[in-house]
Design brief:
21% strand, 630 residues, 5-stranded antiparallel β-sheet, alpha+beta
């Protein structure tokens, strides 16, 4: 595709949790809880008007779902602020300082007063129906190989509650969406670029570069601590926000699929206008048509109803993304009203609905092959509500592309979530005082900035004589600080830098792929591991096994783990005896191959020694023993 010709524009929103001791507006610890909850509270939320009397369209749409929410709370990890039963405490100034450091690294202008605002959100992710947020800085930039990108603003806000499950029945028989409140209130920065990204590969590059800057500051790390949202539009289309883009490598594919979707919707819009298509508002009762249907879905439903889309025939089945059709777009809206899906005449007969039933339905509704019929089967109220959404979405087809918030899917496609929010959802938080930010505070931050990843990589290459790839992996995997702490603590004369770096950059990754939780190994454990190596108590070949042992028994002493696993090194005479026996057992091979037997015998020796001897020593002794036999 020619991105310039299409007028592709993209912007990023990156949300990063900060590594503070407490939450943003209360003294509760900013940490996740892996234990059973103590209590539950139930809430329903509704939209409120802005100061100008307007209601945000996204909030209004959420309210029509009439959802109920169940919140799991903890006696010692959550408080009345999270349950919206107590006013917030003063702003966490540690979080504000970290966000100011990030803003400075992004060449931004920090505001002179921090004002806390309320951002309306009634999807259940905040108990009070709003999220607290405030502007920290504006007008920054980031230079990348594809060019300069403008950083519009950075906000400091509280993270949302974590969704646990949807639509579980409570004791009263009602359907509840369940949230957990341990994450609610953890400080979070939101970094927003302007739409100055014009190439799918560039957006991935920008996300990576911002991520690297964030990792140089005091932010939380691990799964779920950083989230990327991607805004995409083309000239004839509209801005759509893609939420939850976790895999940076998937970004270009998401862009391509979204552009494909928008182009197809524009094409459908033009075809509808050419056909003089029309959406009929009447909802028809089809129970008489399907009275004796053999379709399990139809026969088990209380109510079967339909709407007629004049001139839509053949277009509902048009593919708008890989494996997703225009009918899927319409169904996404209907599903927000509690149905599992829709039927439409572009795909019938199917699902147990016969061709005779389709013909009877068309005759009953007086439609032609140029028309489309959308059917929903459920209880009476849900069916009507879902078809009202079908009518609304079908009417939006005449606009082409609709401004929406969409969810990122694992295959690079996206799915409708809700309309894009408007400025009507923001209003002042009167329970939190403003904070003045003076020039001295900003100057102090500028004079004590952390080292950026690229600078750190080049310094590590220079100081420790590591390869560029190894240094890059250390920085990218956030292990450079551990690497330098190990060298500083143990002493540079006792360690091979490449060995330490390789274990941190590569061996840990392989161990994690085997299913072990390497996050439990802190800096002190690494120092203990490499102290054993420096003191020649273990060989470098034993390090991976020791690390696995720590993952299995995190509270155990490191040297005891090495001893229990029989990994402590043997003295050279013991190693020589083992190798002598191996050579003698394979003397025929040695006499036949001479030094060509070195490879297989080395493998046998290392397997027998199981990391209890350094490979260089084993190699030296093995050569000597083969020489003797020859």
């Amino acid at each position: 595709m020619d991105w310039n010709e299409l007028g592709l524009k993209m912007g990023l929103e990156i949300h990063q949790q900060l590594n503070t001791k407490s939450k943003l507006f209360c003294p509760c610890a900013a940490e996740f809880v892996d234990e059973d909850f103590d209590e539950e509270i139930k809430r329903s939320l509704r939209p409120t008007q802005s100061e100008l009397g307007q209601i945000d369209r996204a909030a209004l749409q959420e309210s029509r779902r009439k959802m109920k929410f169940n919140y799991e709370i903890y006696d010692y990890h959550t408080c009345l602020v999270e349950t919206d039963d107590e006013p917030p405490y003063d702003l966490n100034e540690e979080a504000l300082e970290i966000s100011m450091i990030i803003a400075t690294l992004l060449n931004m202008n920090i505001v002179d007063e921090f004002h806390t605002m309320r951002k309306q959100a009634i999807d259940g992710s905040n108990v009070g129906g709003f999220q607290r947020t405030g502007l920290v800085a504006t007008d920054g930039y980031l230079d990348t190989p594809h060019g300069r990108v403008t950083i519009e603003n950075i906000c400091l806000e509280e993270d949302a509650a974590k969704i646990i499950s949807s639509e579980n029945k409570g004791e009263d028989g009602e359907g509840y969406t369940h949230f957990r409140l341990d994450r609610l209130g953890i400080p979070l920065v939101e970094i927003t670029t302007d739409p100055s990204i014009y190439d799918p590969e560039h957006v991935k590059e920008v996300a990576y570069a911002i991520g690297q800057i964030l990792r140089s500051t005091n932010v939380r790390r691990g799964l779920g601590t950083i989230r990327q949202d991607l805004n995409i539009s083309i000239t004839e289309g509209a801005r759509c926000e893609i939420k939850g883009v976790q895999n940076l490598d998937l970004m270009p594919k998401i862009v391509e699929h979204e552009v494909q979707r928008q182009l197809k919707l524009i094409e459908i819009k033009k075809e509808l206008k050419k056909r003089n298509a029309q959406v009929l508002d009447e909802i028809h009762n089809l129970n008489p048509v399907f009275e004796n249907s053999s379709s399990k879905i139809i026969s088990s439903a209380e109510s079967v109803k339909a709407v007629v889309l004049k001139g839509f025939g053949g277009l509902i089945g048009e593919e708008v993304q890989e494996g997703r059709r225009f009918g899927t777009e319409i169904a996404s809206y209907a599903k927000k009203r509690g149905v599992s899906g829709i039927f439409h005449t572009d795909e019938l007969p199917a699902y147990g609905i016969s061709s005779d039933e389709v013909d009877s339905m068309k005759k009953f509704l007086a439609t032609s092959d140029d028309d489309a019929i959308i059917i929903v089967a459920h209880d009476e109220d849900t069916t009507i509500s879902a078809l009202e959404e079908v009518i609304r979405r079908a009417n939006l087809a005449f606009e082409g592309v609709v401004e929406e918030t969409r969810k990122s899917l694992d295959d690079g496609n996206t799915e409708y979530m809700r309309p894009l929010p408007t400025s009507s959802r923001m209003y002042l938080e009167t329970d939190v005082s403003l904070i003045k930010i003076d020039e001295d505070s900003i100057e102090k931050i500028k004079n004590n900035l952390p080292e950026l990843p690229d600078d750190k990589k080049m310094r590590i290459i220079s100081e420790y004589n590591l390869s560029e790839d190894l240094a890059n992996q250390l920085v990218r995997r956030v292990k450079a600080d551990d690497f330098e702490a190990i060298i500083t603590e143990i002493g540079s004369n006792n360690l091979d830098f490449t060995t330490v770096a390789s274990v941190l950059a590569y061996d840990l990754r392989e161990i994690a792929r085997e299913g072990y939780d390497i996050s439990i190994i802190n800096k002190n454990k690494f120092i203990d591991i490499f102290t054993l190596l420096a003191d020649s108590k273990v060989s470098k070949d034993a390090l991976s096994e020791i690390i696995i042992g720590i993952c299995e028994n995190p509270n155990e002493d490191v040297e005891k783990i090495a001893k229990d696993k029989n990994l402590l090194v043997l003295d050279e005479s013991s190693v020589q005896k083992i190798i002598e026996e191996i050579v003698l057992k394979n003397s025929a091979m040695v006499k036949e191959r001479k030094m060509g037997a070195m490879g297989p015998l080395m493998g046998m020796s290392m397997k027998e020694l199981k990391g209890k001897a350094d490979g260089k020593i084993v190699n030296k002794i093995l050569k000597e023993e083969i020489d003797k036999l020859i």
